[in-house]
Amino acid sequence: MAKQATAEKRQRRERGSINPDDIIKGAFELAEQVGIDNLSMPLLGKHLGVGVTSIYWYFRKKDDLLNAMTDRALRQYVFATPYVEADDWRETLHNHAWTMRKTFLGNPILCDLILIRSALSPRAAQLGVLEVEKSIASLVEAGLSPEDAFDTYSAISVHVRGSVVLQRLYEKNAAAEDGGVALEDNLVVDPENTPLLAQVSSAGHHIIAADDSNFEYTLNCILDHAERQIAKGGKKAPAKKTTKA
Q: Which PANTHER family did the record assign (predicted)?
């Protein structure tokens, strides 16, 4: 069942005792209870024990508050993500992708703010651009052309974000009050009519699912292609194969 938009009532604060950091911190606490969709200024005021006008003094509308939350979430996420290193590009890029996936899947609020809402403030967007530049520079140093380095990192980024968003939407649909059912749960595999699908399904594979197995397979396809591009350019790529994180 979807969480109802309720919040614990706290003892009311004195006038002027709240600041932007307190509001953002309280918004994250409340979002953990009710979700980003149900987060509202009046509900946040009740959670913090202040009048809603105290919040509007710093954040004129909900989008302004969400932008501030996104800025903070993105800074925490970037610091927790390992860098791509040129001398071991395949292993570090592989770990980079898995860390991004696990970080977003393990933090639904982070996922909703950065991936689903996808409305970054100029400051957050600039921070993201700088991190992408670092990763592409490492891939160029490893032997890829700037174009191939960009395409490689972009493909992995889209792969990570797409798989996470699909999983998050599946979870939201499963928790909906109307009892919505995801497409993959409606698929019926009949051994008579679809013997190959039945065979792989019985071995634990999931159809149209963004699970770890599908994620790892596609990730390695991207990395294999990049390795071939490096070899074609005359620079020997590390022979070490990555394993599932």
A: HTH-TYPE TRANSCRIPTIONAL REGULATOR RUTR, HTH-TYPE TRANSCRIPTIONAL REPRESSOR FATR
